[in-house]
Amino acid sequence: MHDDQIPVLTGQPAPDTVLATLARHGAALLRDGGWRRETFVRLGDALMTPLPYDGAFHDERDVVGDDPTTTTVTRGTRGMPLHREASYAPGSPDLLTFLCERPAADGGGTTLCDGVALLAALPEPVRERFEQMEITWESRMSTAAWQQMFGTTDRATAQGLLRRWEPYLRPWESIHVDFTDEVMTTGFGTRCTPPTRFGAVPAFCNSLFISRPRDDEYRDQRLRVRTPAGTPVDDDLVATAAAAAADLTVTVPWQAGDILLVDNSRYLHGRQAFQDTGRAVLVRMGMLDRAAVTA
Description:
Distance between the termini: 31 Å
Structural class: alpha+beta
Largest sheet: 8 strands, mixed
Radius of gyration: 19 Å
């Protein structure tokens, strides 16, 4: 499957046009617009409040120049399983914007899967299980790791810094912090099929596939996902969803100057493996204006 299955806008469309396309389709590819880094940044600023990159927990990207809101994508050449960006923590961005400055000579395409369509494609018993499921993402950090991340040696201060997110949690989200033998365990609870930003439609938009990557794909050993009872998520359910996602996944084979925009509450994204280390794709993430989201 290819990029012609998501909307392709040519030239440099107005931000309102781009936003309307995202609201309807969940993703958009901007091509043949002569896009450069400066215009990419201006478009993103017109669409969202950009989030600065904080690599304290996941130091996987490089900041571009002196702009902390613009980074490279995740380092390396491995494939990336389909996932929702930062779905394992509070403050997951609404919008992802990518700029391809140089595509890989072979492979390296960005993969996309519509979480609304994926949920609808699942067998009814499986769909119902996922719709009712809550999941908790947990991460264990050593003393040195959490002290470096929070810039303190005091447990109460570190815990308070994490809990400052609580006023911003969505109704279905929760956080917890525990200390055992100097190890900090942080947990983030959320729905498996949270509502989309546009239309509040349930979507299979999460990072469960990262918990079972193939051998050639990115793997994060620091995260584990559980049910609220502490039991693992059923592997058979995840495998069924992965098989359905494979049939719905589209690939964007990058061209230099392309911009890809993704509604992070609806579309899962990933990437194909590649060998060409000259591949250069930048990313910016942000929160949409609330008035635009509810329009």
